[in-house]
Design brief:
Layout lengths: L12 E3 L2 E4 L6 E4 H7 L7 H4 L18 H11 L14
Antiparallel strand pairs: 1-2, 2-3
């Protein structure tokens, strides 16, 4: 559709190797690797680099991770749920 290929801001919770996504009324819980692959987060290139199936290369991704304390402080300091540090072409 019209948004194909457009990068936008989004957040989720990571607990170990599990992702929990409660955004937009959803209730998603799945393995982190699957979530990253479905969302095309980073560019996993396992085949070309001989990496194991559980390797995720997010070095090219615009990802900002926060501890609960850091997130709480950012919410209070900025007066909103985020994003706080994300930069996208669209501003979304």
């Amino acid at each position: 559709g019209q948004l194909e290929g457009v990068k936008y801001g989004h957040c989720w919770i990571e607990s170990g190797e599990t992702v929990i996504d409660k955004s937009n009324g959803r209730d998603i819980e799945m393995p982190k690797m699957m979530y990253y692959m479905l969302g095309k987060i980073g560019q996993p290139d396992m085949e070309n680099w001989g990496k194991s199936a559980n390797f995720m290369d997010t070095s090219s991704a615009n990802i900002h991770k926060y501890t609960w304390k850091e997130a709480r402080e950012a919410i209070v300091d900025n007066g909103h749920w985020g994003p706080w540090d994300l930069v996208t072409e669209t501003g979304l």
